[in-house]
């Protein structure tokens, strides 16, 4: 069997067209969705992510600002800047690019962002809302995965989903979103014994591990859906996922490639959340 490819780039482009239309409508009503991104220090990967987010805002006709702070900025100064943005009516979404330097308490920073502007969906209030199925900002990568499945016509209701990885930004929330849509969910992680015995049972496997080509063909049931969240470099320095694409695509029914799978959806859902925030702010 050769798996069908879930083309994240195409699905993201379709979603972006919808978002651009929504931006136009809001602008006609005098509201330009605005995103503020705070970048602390000079992490190369973070800078690339931030540049891509700004570029996406521009392409969609949104307002965006980048606030750069030096590595040695104090926690107080960062929290002060977030507070300013919380009050700024032109800003509907605030994002602090992670990781931040160790001398700053990440939890404090996340909690200082107004839940009404937390377009990353990391604030505990929004996580609680997600868990209880209320209106909120869903975290972008997990949300993007749900959209990929929906757009491919794959229903998760009644399916056994095995999530490999339990991070707060990917593993945990993606399992919760699957559960909200009536999947039976199993979480596996670094302490799981006999990982294959779980993944082999899965109708849908979500790999969010951070180890290049970690999931092999013998982890996967024939015809299963395989979602690869990983962004890694292999020994040759080439971008690759957590799933051994060559092998697994021979067994799976559907598979997301890396690149052009989950990746393009993350920024797209960030744009979606910012526009949603702008629309909701104009209704308050
Ligand atoms: P993380 O390091 O926070 O979490 C990794 C998880 O994998 C942990 O929960 C750990 O328990 C689990 N794990 C580690 N070794 C394991 C093993 N041997 N067996 C089973 N589980 C194991 O990572 P993260 O932030 O969740 O990111 C995971 C991957 O996804 C990374 O490659 C990251 O770059 C990528 N990522 C991609 C996007 C995107 O937009 N596509 C977004 C976020 C993260």
From TrEMBL:
<comment type="function">
    <text>Catalyzes the oxidation of 5,10-methylenetetrahydrofolate to 5,10-methenyltetrahydrofolate and then the hydrolysis of 5,10-methenyltetrahydrofolate to 10-formyltetrahydrofolate.</text>
</comment>
<comment type="subunit">
    <text>Homodimer.</text>
</comment>
<keyword id="KW-0486">Methionine biosynthesis</keyword>
<feature type="binding site">
    <location>
        <begin position="165"/>
        <end position="167"/>
    </location>
    <ligand>
        <name>NADP(+)</name>
    </ligand>
</feature>
<dbReference type="InterPro" id="IPR046346">
    <property type="entry name" value="Aminoacid_DH-like_N_sf"/>
</dbReference>
<keyword id="KW-0368">Histidine biosynthesis</keyword>
<comment type="pathway">
    <text>One-carbon metabolism; tetrahydrofolate interconversion.</text>
</comment>
<dbReference type="Pfam" id="PF00763">
    <property type="entry name" value="THF_DHG_CYH"/>
</dbReference>
<keyword id="KW-0560">Oxidoreductase</keyword>
<dbReference type="InterPro" id="IPR020867">
    <property type="entry name" value="THF_DH/CycHdrlase_CS"/>
</dbReference>
<keyword id="KW-0658">Purine biosynthesis</keyword>
<dbReference type="InterPro" id="IPR036291">
    <property type="entry name" value="NAD(P)-bd_dom_sf"/>
</dbReference>
<dbReference type="InterPro" id="IPR015878">
    <property type="entry name" value="Ado_hCys_hydrolase_NAD-bd"/>
</dbReference>
<dbReference type="InterPro" id="IPR020630">
    <property type="entry name" value="THF_DH/CycHdrlase_cat_dom"/>
</dbReference>
<dbReference type="InterPro" id="IPR000672">
    <property type="entry name" value="THF_DH/CycHdrlase"/>
</dbReference>
<comment type="similarity">
    <text>Belongs to the tetrahydrofolate dehydrogenase/cyclohydrolase family.</text>
</comment>
<feature type="binding site">
    <location>
        <position position="231"/>
    </location>
    <ligand>
        <name>NADP(+)</name>
    </ligand>
</feature>
<keyword id="KW-0554">One-carbon metabolism</keyword>
<keyword id="KW-0378">Hydrolase</keyword>
<feature type="domain" description="S-adenosyl-L-homocysteine hydrolase NAD binding">
    <location>
        <begin position="141"/>
        <end position="261"/>
    </location>
</feature>
<protein>
    <recommendedName>
        <fullName>Bifunctional protein FolD</fullName>
        <ecNumber>1.5.1.5</ecNumber>
        <ecNumber>3.5.4.9</ecNumber>
    </recommendedName>
</protein>
<keyword id="KW-0511">Multifunctional enzyme</keyword>
<keyword id="KW-0028">Amino-acid biosynthesis</keyword>
<keyword id="KW-0521">NADP</keyword>
<dbReference type="InterPro" id="IPR020631">
    <property type="entry name" value="THF_DH/CycHdrlase_NAD-bd_dom"/>
</dbReference>
<dbReference type="Pfam" id="PF02882">
    <property type="entry name" value="THF_DHG_CYH_C"/>
</dbReference>
